[in-house]
Each structure stands twice: as structure tokens, then as C-alpha cells.
Amino acid sequence: MHQENSTTLSIVIPVYNEVNFLDELFNQLIFFFNNKYTEIIFVDDGSDDGSSKLLTQLKKKNSYKFSIKILRLDNNSGKGKAIQIGIKNSNGEYVLLQDADLELDCKDAKEMFEMISAKKEIKCIFGSRYLSGKLRKNNYLFNNLLGKINSLIFNVFFSQSLSDVHCGLKILHRSVIEKIQLTINDFGIEIDLASQIVRNNFFIYEYGVSYFFRSKVQGKKITWTDGLKSFYYLFKVRFFDNSASTNLSIAYSSAYMAFVGSYFGMGLGNKLFIFLFFILGSVLGIHFKLMTSSLIFLFIYIGSFFGKGQGKVLSVIIFFILGIYIANKLKKIFQKTKYKLIF
Question: Based on the number of CB atoms within 10 Å of its own CB, is 4 exposed (0-12), middle (13-18) or buried (19 or more)?
Fold first, then answer.
């Protein structure tokens, strides 16, 4: 629980076997954040390479003004778990998440803090490795591709336009921290965090940051399997971690859209249409409740009476788009009323 004090910024840094980078990281923290209003929270996630000993030695130095906490986990529990523990032990008005491996620059972290603290209307900034003309080095094509695909899927599922969901550099205001309940313990924490921020109606700003990749030889932890697991997390946070009313809407719209899809194509093509319409219905169920979703279905049904063959398909598509437009208008009208659970 956050206590009233003079701490403005808490920097949470998960550490797992980063002994080769901690000296330089500490020097950067002193250079950019050396003041009494900042606390540095290192969460040692079961390191066995000497990181624990080095962190203790660094804490004993007298060349810094910020406060330092070193939290230790007996076993390696994952980046997500380390971040959760660090956040729970933070006191700052702002919480900055910074990786320990120097792939991301503390200078960018400083710039993000200055930006969010100067503009009180901004409550959340995500770093993006794809936005700016800053230095960037990345030789991992497959990991890079998976990251972009994941960001695209996240944007479709949550009606966002983020370029880099997985960037580890993020800063959040305390009001955001108090609304979220993180549960994912591994690298899926980035998806968990972003989805909960959006669900709680906070706007995510992005800021271009430098990126200097590490190779596996240098100790990079994330692998392509983590990229594949992130697909599971995307579906989990979007289609399962919902309210009862949203899950009902998803089931309802998926069912009627699959029914609509059954009228298109023949044989294998027909099954493909059913599957695609089912997926489309599940996405509609996320954004529209029972009444507005039923309105969309009504427009599709009306559109099916016009034309034949390809003309009928075109008519259904036109009425479908019109139905979404009108449903969205109604949704905005009823969003702040007692009827929002059905509209």
C-alpha cells in the first residue's frame, strides 16, 4: 500500500543473473537519477551468478543520494513475479519499470519521467523500440517479428494502436498502479500490464527509445518459445479475463456470426467461413454488449434479403458495416447510464 512520503519516483528493476551489467547500470542510475526523491528497487529473482553479492556491494557505496531496496527471491520465479513484488514494495508517485540488462537506455527512462511528471494528464508511458530515430540494434529477426505480430493482435483485441507492447521500459502513475492486479509471472507480464491499463480506461502514450540487443551468449533470457506463449496470453487476457457480461456477449456474438458464416461457401470453404465468422463474432462480443450486438445481427439479417450470389455477399457486408456504425453510436449514448451492461 502506498504511503505518503517524499518519494517521487520508484524504479523497479528485476535482476536474474546480470552480474556483467550491474556496475554499468548502477553508474547510469547515479548519472540520471541521483536525488533523494528516488528509490531504486532491485528484485533479485534467484540469481546464482554473483549478482546478489554485487548488488550488496553496490548498495554499500556512498556515491549516491537515492534510497536502495534489494528484495531477494529464493528461486527464479520469472520477470513478471519480480515486477509484481517490486511494485508492491514501491512508494513513489510514479513507478518506472527498467530492465537490468542495458538493452534499454536509462537516459530514455529519465526523459520519460520528465515528460510524465511535467504533464499531469499523462498517467502512463510505454517505451517503443520502433518509433524514433534513436539508435537501435537488433539481429533477432524471429523475435522481432513475433513482437510486432503480438502488438498487432493486441491492438485488434483492445482497439489500441501501440507499436511495441513488449518493450520493458514503462512508467506509470500511482493511480494506475492502484487499479491493476498483475497475475502473470513470466515475460507475459507485458501483455498482462497493458491489457489491465486499457481495461481501466487509462490512455497509453508511447515514447521512442534506443535499443541495443543482447545475444544469448551475453545472457539474453527471452526466447522464441516465450514469443509463442505470448499468443496464449493474448487470448487469455482478452477472452477469459473478463466480466460475466462480456463473456456472455462473446458467446452470443460468436454463435450468431458462426450461423451467418454457414450461409457462405460450400464444403471446406463453408467450414472456413464459419470459423472466420466465429472469430469475428468473438471480437465483436468484446466491444458490443447484448443489445448493440443484436442490432448488428439484425442488420446482417436484413442485408441477406438483397441480391443473389456475390451481390448478396456485398449486401451483407454493407449492412454489417452500417450495423456496427449505428451500434457504436448507441454504445456511446448509453455508456454512462445504468444500461451500459446491455448496450
Answer: exposed
Beta-strand relationship, 9-15 and 38-45: parallel
Kindly report whether the global pTM for this prediction surpasses the value 0.70.
yes
Across the range 127-139, mean pLDDT stands at: 78
Measured distance CA(19)–CA(13) in Å, rounded: 13
The CATH code of the domain at 9-239 is 3.90.550.10
Q: Largest alpha-carbon pair distance within the chain?
A: 81
In this model, does residue 250 exceed pLDDT 60? yes
Q: How far apart are the C-alpha atoms of 84 and 189, rounded to whole Å? A: 9
Domain limits, the chain: 9-239, 244-334
Report d(CA 232, CA 230) in Å as an integer: 5
Residue 306 and residue 318 in contact, taking contact as beta carbons nearer than 8 Å: no
Q: Is the pLDDT of residue 228 over 80?
A: no
Rg over alpha carbons for the chain, rounded to the nearest Å, is 24
Indicate if the alpha-carbon torsion angle 90, 91, 97, 99 is positive or negative: negative
**Residue 252 three-state SS:** helix
Taking residue 291's Cβ as centre, other Cβ atoms within 10 Å add up to 16
C-alpha cell at 231: 499468443
| Residues 273 and 265 sit within 8 Å (Cβ to Cβ) | yes
Joined together, the cell numbers standing for residue 33 give 537519477
Q: What is the mean pLDDT of residues 178-207?
A: 93
pLDDT at 4 over 70: no
